[in-house]
Amino acid sequence: MSIFSQHLKGKVYDQQSTVKGIKVYNISKQIKTYTDDAGEFSIAASVNDTLLFESLFHNPKQVKLKPTDFEDIVVFELKKTINELGEVLLNNNDAKTFNAKTYTNATGLQLANDIKNNPHLYKPESAYTGGANILGIIGMAIQLFKKKNKYKPQPIEYINYKHLDSLFKNDDFFNLRLLHQDLRIPETYAHLFLDYCETKSLNKELISEENKVVLLDSLVEFSREFLKITKNHNSAKDSLLIKN
After folding, report:
1. What is the Cα–Cα distance from 57 to 149, expressed in whole angstroms?
2. Residue 35 above 90 pLDDT?
3. What's the rounded mean pLDDT across residues 99-117?
4. How far is residue 214 CA from its own chain's centroid?
5. Which residues, at least 6 apart from 73, have a Cβ–Cβ distance to it below 8 Å?
6. What is the distance between the alpha carbons of residues 58 and 187, in angstroms, rounded to a whole number?
7. Strand 6-13 and strand 74-77: pairing?
8. DSSP 8-class letter at 26
9. How does pLDDT run across 114-146, given as a tens digit for each residue?
10. Do the Cβ atoms of 202 and 164 come closer than 8 Å?
11. Side by side, which strands form the sheet with 40-45?
């Protein structure tokens, strides 16, 4: 196989632009590489080999190589998966028919209960001096005050280092592979990156299953910021060593 193997040069893009960080896996030869900043890659391959393209944000794609693929740089297109909403079908059988009799009975029952609980609000004005329903007004004010003070906002709990550490150790999706390969966080910087994410004051509700995509989008943004900071720090450190 090595005798007939050659290097395939390609470029990967989606609906918007070229894409970097796409894993290109030669299933036939069991080797892999990643696209660079320009979306380009080079990998050892032969005719009839099968390539697999994978990314967190794109649908996986398999391609069987043809002889013409080795004549020039071959272009591969991937389809994005994030922010795609599934189709919602409305069934006429789901519509509920309005029943006037049932609605009237329910309203009457609610009114009877309210009269029982707040009788002073339904007394005639002639029962009060000066024709003014003073007790009724006071009662309404008290009820309004109770309703206004009934709601107590719950304090927001933010994601901390322990939450993220537990998530990446135990979750099937947010795992160490995602942290190192997809977010590009070096293993030596993993704990420092989790500390950095804690400073972003993310709501703990983002750890729930239904908010997984929102959390992933935030982590991708934070990883870019973090890698830029570490790169600038290392560059400054190297410059200082050279001067010394």
Report:
1. 45
2. yes
3. 65
4. 2
5. 9, 10, 11, 40
6. 25
7. parallel
8. E
9. 776 766 666 555 544 454 556 666 666 666 666
10. no
11. 40-45, 6-13, 74-77
User: Looking at this protein, which amino acid is placed at residue 131?
Assistant: G
Q: How far apart, in Å, do the first and last CA atoms of the chain sit?
A: 52
Radius of gyration of the chain (CA): 32
- Do the Cβ atoms of 14 and 76 come closer than 8 Å? no
Rounded distance, CA 78 to CA 57, Å?
A: 10
* Phi, psi of 120, rounded to the nearest 5 degrees: -65, -20
Per residue in 156-210, pLDDT (tens digit) is 889 998 998 888 888 888 888 888 888 899 888 888 889 899 998 899 888 888 8
Q: Of the candidates 215, 129, 132, which has an alpha carbon nearest to the alpha carbon of residue 171?
A: 215
| CA 24 to centroid of chain Cα atoms | 24
Q: d(Cα 29, Cα 201) in Å, to the nearest integer?
A: 45
Q: At what angle do helices 190-198 and 161-170 cross, to 10 degrees?
A: 130
CB-count exposure of residue 164 (10 Å: 0-12, 13-18, 19+) = buried
Average pLDDT, the chain: 79
